[in-house]
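Quick question: what would this complex look like in 3D?
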Amino acid sequence: MSLITEVGAPPAVGFRVTRSRRNVAWTGIGALIVVVVLAMMPTIVYSGTTAILVQAFIVLTLASMWNLLAGYAGLVSVGQQGFVGLGAYFVLILALHGASPFAALPFAAIGCAVAALPLWWLVSRLRSGYFAIATWVLAATIMLVIERFSSLGSGTGLPLPGLSGLSATYLAAYTYWAALAVTVLAMLAMYLLLRSRVGLVLTAIRDDEVAARSSGARVGLARMLVFVVAGAGCGAAGAVLAISQLQVQPSAVFDVQWTAEMAFATIIGGLGTIEGPIIGTAVYMVLQQTLASYNAWYLIILGLAAIVVALFARRGLWGLVDSRLHLRLFPVGYWLRTTSGNGRRGLGSFRGARTGTS
Amino acid sequence: MAWVNAIIEGILTGGLYALFACGLSLMFGVMKVVNLAHGDLAVVGGYIAVGIILLHVPVLWSVVIVVPIMAVAGYVLQRTVIQRALDRGVLTTLIVTLGLSLVIENALLQFFSANTRGIGSGMTLVTGSFSLGSQIQIGYLLVVVFAVAVAVLLGLQYFLSRSTYGRLIRAVADDKEAAQLAGANYRHVFGVAAGLALATVALGGIAYGMYIDLDPTAGTDTILLFAFVAVVIGGLGSLWGTLVGGIVLGVAQQIGAQINISDELIAGYIVFLAILVLRPQGLISRRAQT
């Protein structure tokens, strides 16, 4: 399944193409240490803290998927809550048939990936803004269809069965590990996808769609792949949501606020970088935890912050870091540098905000 | 007879949906902006009307006050926020209008609570109806709203196709750089177009407050989605298509409600999906603008 019919010419003599200006092996080791430390959390802290972290993992997974859609494939979806809801309901359906909700989680992700195919066929006819609202209409339609099934609790939803045998401590720990696993897998999948040929095609689309098409990049296929992966990721996050809430309620899991949260966490952190959603999620969680008692205020502030960042600091908080330090923890692009002479700064002009492919 | 009644009501609600949709279509046609805050701005118009009526201003006079306010707000919003976003690309425009939508909705929720508010709930215009024959009942309000929608569309069409300023708007929509070279200030023209769009959707918001009830989430749950569905059914970029799309959506919803009261919304969306599959350019197709 070749996405590009022809790879570009080999680099000219005197240049070297690398993934990053710095050695990033330590990033991998660092990421591993972080994951191991996070995995030990349930044995260290109280379940109140892990519950907050579960919430953070859900937002981080969602934000990473939205970043993949909007930041890399140029697909602004306002309907990702459709997949969150579908994932939650897949878990509920399997649990109602006697499966353990934790065992149902991977199937929920796969189910959402499968569901993403026909949905993509419907919405791929529309571009940019109309694509955005069409995904929203689809999510609303999916909710209305699910609400018709009285066996799934109609408009009020159902409590999630199959977890009553677990003690509260174990349930909190298992939920936490499931959330962590979903987040790590989602980010790993995204990282590998972006480092593959698909990632190259996506970068080409983002920089110039017409040029990418005319040089043989299979734009539609790459976008569909991203939509399917993002559907699976959001579905998995929805499944974790169902398990952590212990109930599934249509108006809660299909809330457009999920999309607002994932979009704004991504934008504030930095659209089009893997690091961005991580920072954005941290900012989001701090805002939410400190302003939670002021009702809607944290959403107002989140929305205003997203507007300000989108207008005045397009590359988000991570973009500010990157532009000072030329630092990428998870390099997915290519970096062109001279092998001779004083090339310490590389060819800086090749990596402006527009290409951003270091 | 219930069916005839339902279909007549569906056709007439199409006028309301056209009021929601024509501003969205206009802004997309002129400046390629899909304003995700469109519905919330309609609700803002409705809430301003509610506020004015609380000051003992007659309901119909509140319309005369709110529409210019929203037109000015549209101009200012376009010149300050949306134009800046446009200069940075389509993606930024979507993000900024989505942000506006979230901010407006939650600000309304914070300051006016989640309670629903009706407009003019005691008036004959709002509650009254007349009968055709023995079984068909038609509310005055829907007839008036439909007439207003037709008048707005006629006015917009006349303005865009006949007047000098309308010609300027079309020139800028076709090629803003060329229009700029010919001496037009396209940013100002965009502002005027946004003002027109918000004036029409403010009418829609007030009519919605009279027909159903306003609440902070109506802007996204209902108005934006219905407006968009009407635009897609009618055909992207077509002004009268918004009325056709609105009527198709209204009739589909009323027929759905006749089959089963909970099928009202889903019937409208099913027609939308069918159009998307079978005739993606919409019923009234100018070449589909993507």
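Answer marked as accepted. Chain A is about 65% helix and 5% strand.
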